[in-house]
Amino acid sequence: QVQLVESGGGLVQAGGSLRLSCAASGRTVYMGWFRQAPGKEREFVAAISWTGGTDYADSVKGRFTISRDIAKNTVYLQMNSLKPEDTAVYYCNAGSSRVLVTTNPPYWGQGTQVTVSS
Questions:
Q1: How far apart are CA 98 and CA 27, in angstroms?
Q2: Which residue, 83, 91, 89, is CA-closest to 116?
Q3: Does residue 41 register a pLDDT over 90?
Q4: What's the whole-number mean pLDDT along residues 91-116?
């Protein structure tokens, strides 16, 4: 069983930056982030493998960077050049494969709110 705890959300002005963290307990191969904006479905944001390979949604490429600290079993999401449309609850997730963690992760954190004001 994997437990995930996010931190780092908050309120920021458009163009600003935030860094989200997610600490995992238990073995994780792939870790990533989804987000859910008000009235919308959850969508994939980014994922990273044990070896450091990454995937990003087109909407965040060039602005967001995912990284992980294997020793701490923690994944980070550095979000730069934030836009109001990035406002959402961000969920950390984990899974045993790239397909799972980018489409239907089995493990989820509780979510952290990110609000970008215009």
A1: 15
A2: 83
A3: yes
A4: 96
User: Tokens 């437990």, residue?
Assistant: 3
Of 71, 67, 109, the closest CA to residue 92 belongs to 109
Residues 6+ positions from 104 with CB-CB distance below 8 Å: none
Residue 27: the pLDDT is 86
Say how far apart CA 37 and CA 40 lie, in whole Å: 5
Q: Rounded to an integer, what is the distance from CA 47 to the centroid of its chain? A: 7
Residues 6+ apart with CB under 8 A from 41: none
Closest CA to 91 of 41, 22, 25, 24: 22
HSE toward the beta carbon, residue 48, CA cutoff 13 A: 18
Give me the mean pLDDT over the 14-21 stretch: 98
Tokens at 28, concatenated = 């994780």
